[in-house]
């Protein structure tokens, strides 16, 4: 029975003012069962009828109150009860209003110095309200002058709306991925044709943070305890990984000291002893992006033990400090519970993580692959003297008259297309003389540039780029009349297109990833992602900035990690584009020519290759190993010239 003054009382009454759907879920039942087992608590479950229908004056009295808001829960009524009976609150009620508005959550996090992703708010008073401070272009949105380039994230301001969108840039194929609460084995869907953002409400826009395909969820029980788990991010392919019992597969991860402090700060800032939040790890830093009240870990007996022991101490310290809160040497429920000491730590077919390799330790695996089959690459070269094209070059090279410019983004290519359209006559007159032949050739090349840029109707994909190289300069007076400056009068335009990864090329890369998984990690099967919390946080996939190479890397990752769906989300989530990967090759021209000559010699020779650079122990190190004897006859049939 609850008492007003617990001095000398042997039992503490805990009221559970929570909707029945939440009370009778497995984690809550497990923790309440452990609290009962201590023999120090009387637990009263209010039930839906009492919470929804009865006046607060006849609600059960209690010393400590567990109350948290969920669908249909009357938070204001619970506040009135707490004001009337003044129980100790595990999670304070007033701050729970904040959790239903993402804007207030972010504002509160920033107030307490907790890192959040870069974001901006779009507040609408009614659906589809036009706002002067909101601008949407093909590859970005701009809010109050703050620009977010795709990929970016769009979250409803309403914290109870879980339909979160990610918009991808045209350079990666475009489209949108919709994230939602799990439905069966799906947690997201990719929509390749959706490119415009929503306008029917208020939203938060934030930069997309690549986390290596991993989501980390942190659960606190008081400010001094945090448990973290990793799962496959729904951003990758939207397929929920489940164990044989149908539970989502998650794995414990260690938090850094900084992340532990963030957990403590979140718990204190929102005055919620028990809560959960999403942690984004990106480029060596961590950010909080969502906070949920009263969240429990699922399917972890160790966590249930910890949570029950910590809550016991919290309750006793608050209402029965005369009772010892020291944890007994043997927990009262342990004799009837299965051993869970290795939960979450075993590998499929490989025992405990870390037990393999007694005398040697594999520190890393490095794989270098070439892109898959592609369509032929094509180029258009022409010298340009037109002022609008030269001005475009200066616009994107910082105004440097002797600097080369590369145009690849949708905005840059659209500028070039607009300039080219002004230079190309709408129709051919058919009355040109022979003296105009050179001009005609120039116009035809510009027409070809225009046709290539217009192909497809929008700049989707990563297979078109233009280089502008200045060739001639002159001195002209500066605009302010103070001296002279150089200005280009002629440049070389090189349009490169084609080289698209074919369907066969994607299949090659995906099968290679699957082959690599099955042969380098035998026994893992489709469970390679089980290493999410260990090696996979260090899994890095790099690609050059060539489109076919990026898509090959994404297809390889899809096969390696047994993913499903389109390549665009995989590319953005898992592949890091590094345009400097091929830098320095211009200094290796001699070695490259020697290698090409040696390959040509091997291909045209029908003689058996001599073992000059390899050995019987390392047969793959022999020049030309694996080539059939009649390679020179087979290559022409494949459309390849030796």
Automatic annotation (TrEMBL):
Coarse class of the primary localization is cytoplasm
Query: What compartments host this protein?
Result: Cytoplasm, Cytosol
EC numbers listed for it are 2.7.4.24
| A GO biological-process term | inositol phosphate biosynthetic process
A GO CC term attached to the entry: cytosol
GO MF terms, alphabetically ordered: 5-diphosphoinositol pentakisphosphate 1-kinase activity; ATP binding; inositol hexakisphosphate kinase activity
The record lists the catalysed reaction(s) as: 1D-myo-inositol hexakisphosphate + ATP = 1-diphospho-1D-myo-inositol 2,3,4,5,6-pentakisphosphate + ADP; 5-diphospho-1D-myo-inositol 1,2,3,4,6-pentakisphosphate + ATP + H(+) = 1,5-bis(diphospho)-1D-myo-inositol 2,3,4,6-tetrakisphosphate + ADP
The residues covered by the VIP1 N-terminal domain are: 12-101
Q: Which Pfam families match?
A: His_Phos_2, PPIP5K2_N
Q: What class of enzyme is it?
A: transferase
* Alphabetical keyword list: Acetylation, ATP-binding, Cytoplasm, Kinase, Nucleotide-binding, Phosphoprotein, Transferase
Q: Which family does it belong to?
A: Belongs to the histidine acid phosphatase family. VIP1 subfamily.
What's the stated role of this polypeptide?
Bifunctional inositol kinase that acts in concert with the IP6K kinases to synthesize the diphosphate group-containing inositol pyrophosphates diphosphoinositol pentakisphosphate, PP-InsP5, and bis-diphosphoinositol tetrakisphosphate, (PP)2-InsP4. PP-InsP5 and (PP)2-InsP4, also respectively called InsP7 and InsP8, may regulate a variety of cellular processes, including apoptosis, vesicle trafficking, cytoskeletal dynamics, and exocytosis. Phosphorylates inositol hexakisphosphate (InsP6).
This protein is called what? Inositol hexakisphosphate and diphosphoinositol-pentakisphosphate kinase
Source organism per UniProt: Brachypodium distachyon (Purple false brome)
Q: Name the gene for this chain.
A: LOC100830891
């Amino acid at each position: 029975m609850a008492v007003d003054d617990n001095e000398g009382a042997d039992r503490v009454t805990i009221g559970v003012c929570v909707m029945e759907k939440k009370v009778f879920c497995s984690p809550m039942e497990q923790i309440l069962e452990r609290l009962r087992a201590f023999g120090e608590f009387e637990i009263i479950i209010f039930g839906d009828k009492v919470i929804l229908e009865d006046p607060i004056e006849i609600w059960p009295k209690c010393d400590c109150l567990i109350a948290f808001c969920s669908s249909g829960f009357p938070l204001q009524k619970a506040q009135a009860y707490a004001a009337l009976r003044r129980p100790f609150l595990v999670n304070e009620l007033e701050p729970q209003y904040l959790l239903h508005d993402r804007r207030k959550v972010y504002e509160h996090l920033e107030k307490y110095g907790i890192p959040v992703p870069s974001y901006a708010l779009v507040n609408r008073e009614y659906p589809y309200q036009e706002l002067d401070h909101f601008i949407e272009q093909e590859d970005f949105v701009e809010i109050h002058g703050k620009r977010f380039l795709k990929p970016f994230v769009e979250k409803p301001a309403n914290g109870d709306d879980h339909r979160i969108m990610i918009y991808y840039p045209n350079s990666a194929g475009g489209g949108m991925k919709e994230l939602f609460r799990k439905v069966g084995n799906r947690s997201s869907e990719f929509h390749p044709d959706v490119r415009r953002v929503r306008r029917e409400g208020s939203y938060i826009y934030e930069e997309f943070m690549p986390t290596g395909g991993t989501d980390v969820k942190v659960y606190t029980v008081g400010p001094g305890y945090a448990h973290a788990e990793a799962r496959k991010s729904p951003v990758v392919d939207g397929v929920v990984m489940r164990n044989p019992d149908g539970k989502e597969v998650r794995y414990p991860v260690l938090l850094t000291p900084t992340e532990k402090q963030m957990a403590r700060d979140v718990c204190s800032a929102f005055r919620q002893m028990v809560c959960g939040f999403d942690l984004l790890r990106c480029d060596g830093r961590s950010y909080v992006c969502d906070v949920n009240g009263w969240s429990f870990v699922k399917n972890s007996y160790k966590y249930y033990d910890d949570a029950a022991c910590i809550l016991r101490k919290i309750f006793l310290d608050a209402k029965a400090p005369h009772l010892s809160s020291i944890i007994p040497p043997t927990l009262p429920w342990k004799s009837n519970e299965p051993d869970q000491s290795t939960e979450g730590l075993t590998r499929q077919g490989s025992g405990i993580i870390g037990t393999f390799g007694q005398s040697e330790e594999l520190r890393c695996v490095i794989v270098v692959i070439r892109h898959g089959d592609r369509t032929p690459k094509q180029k258009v070269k022409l010298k340009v003297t037109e002022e609008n094209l030269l001005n475009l070059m200066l616009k994107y090279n910082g105004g440097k008259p002797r600097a080369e410019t590369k145009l690849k983004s949708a905005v840059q290519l659209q500028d070039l297309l607009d300039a080219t359209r002004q230079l190309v006559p709408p129709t051919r007159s058919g009355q040109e003389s022979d003296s105009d032949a050179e001009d005609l050739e120039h116009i035809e090349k510009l027409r070809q540039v225009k046709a290539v840029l217009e192909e497809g109707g929008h700049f989707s994909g990563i297979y078109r780029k233009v280089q502008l190289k200045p060739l001639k300069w002159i001195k002209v007076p500066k605009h302010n009349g103070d001296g002279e400056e150089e200005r280009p009068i002629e440049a070389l335009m090189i349009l490169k297109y084609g080289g698209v990864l074919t369907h066969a090329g994607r299949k090659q890369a995906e099968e290679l990833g699957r082959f690599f998984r099955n042969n380098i990690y035998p026994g893992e099967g489709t469970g390679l992602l089980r290493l999410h919390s260990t090696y996979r946080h260090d899994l890095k996939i790099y690609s050059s900035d060539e489109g076919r190479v990026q898509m090959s890397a994404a297809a390889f990752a899809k096969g390696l990690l047994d993913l499903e769906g389109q390549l665009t989300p995989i590319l953005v989530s898992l592949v890091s584009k590094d345009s400097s990967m091929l830098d320095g090759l211009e200094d290796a021209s001699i070695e490259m020519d020697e290698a090409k000559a040696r390959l040509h010699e091997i291909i045209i020779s029908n003689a058996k290759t001599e073992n000059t650079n390899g050995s019987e122990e390392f047969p793959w190190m022999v020049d030309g190993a694996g080539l059939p004897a009649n390679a020179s006859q087979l290559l022409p049939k494949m459309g390849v010239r030796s």
